[in-house]
Amino acid sequence: MIVLVGFMGAGKSTVGRLLAAKLGLPFTDSDQVIEERAGQPIRRIFADAGEPAFRELEHSVIADLLAGPDAVLALGGGAPGHPATRALLAAVPVVYLRVGYAEALARVGGDEGRPMLARPGVQALHAERQAVYASVATLTVDTDGRLPDEIALDLLAALGG
Ligand code: S3P
Fold it and tell me: By CB atoms within 10 Å of each CB, which of 64, 78, 95, 148 scores lowest?
């Protein structure tokens, strides 16, 4: 199992897919499994059930995925904020894809499918989460100004693939 964490727009899904292909592993995105399980897009879950309900569902999906077959697993940007999820991450390799605030916004700004982007204080959230990502990471890679394929190749080399 290899887990990817980082802020929205860090490239977790794009880089994760490339890395999975290089490693011959399946790729899984926790957001996608959450949407399948809830039968609703994330934006709807936030609007109808609220963020705390989303975070509980997110934790239980991630716990199930971590207990499942080997994969490259990309987590939603807020997932490591959940203490029980952080505890589970202590047992697996975790790659932190670091992205600066300006570049994150340039990549995903205005995406209505990402309700956290519409909140006030997104820059402060980005700043606060850096320490959270760093606390779970076994490997940190900067992504600003870099192409997904270069990053995936770096990861492959660092992970000994
Ligand atoms: C969130 C990030 C999203 C998704 C949800 C909340 C966050 O995932 O889980 O919209 O709190 O940062 P991505 O990081 O894949 O955009």
Answer: 64
Whole-angstrom distance, CA of residue 17 vs CA of residue 2: 12
Residue 70: domain span: 2-156
Cβ < 6 Å from ligand 1: which residues? 8, 12, 31, 42, 76-78, 114-116
| Residues 104-154: tens digit of each pLDDT | 999 998 899 999 999 899 999 999 999 999 999 999 999 999 999 999 999
Distance 89 CA to ligand 1 centre (A): 17
In a 13 Å sphere around the CA of 130, the CA atoms on its Cβ side amount to 12
pTM comes to 0.98
**Burial (CB count <10 Å: 0-12, 13-18, 19+), residue 15:** buried
Give the CATH number, domain containing residue 149.
3.40.50.300
Rounded Cα gap, residues 62 and 65, in angstroms: 5
Tally of domains in the chain: 1
The tens digit of pLDDT for each residue in 13-29 reads 999 999 999 999 999 99
